[in-house]
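Before a colleague's protein record goes any further, I have to sign it off. My question to you is simply how this chain folds and whether the tokens agree. I do not need a full report, just your reasoning and any doubts. This is what I was given:
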Amino acid sequence: MSANPYESENHARDEDKPPSGPGGLGPLDPVEPPETPPRGTARKRGRPQGKRSDPTYVLACAYIPAQLRQQVKIALIKADLEYSELVAQLLREWLERQT
């Protein structure tokens, strides 16, 4: 009798045998990894590249009063403008006044 209750006496473990597919239907085919597009190529699906992954942009943080931030958010929605666009515009105007 076999020491393993899940292995029948007629089934001998043979380490040299190739692995078989589900239900012992034959050898398993090797699984090839999916092809990945070369780096630098345009993506066809998904969201467009954002500022976070664009190397020409950097993150700039500042602490501002919460009430001011809330008022700005409301005004930006009405103006259909992004916060980063507003900040960039204001910083450019400030730089022009400095020269």
Observations:
- The radius of gyration is 31 Å.
- The chain has two helices and no strands.
- The chain has a mean pLDDT of 79.
- The longest helix spans residues 83-98.
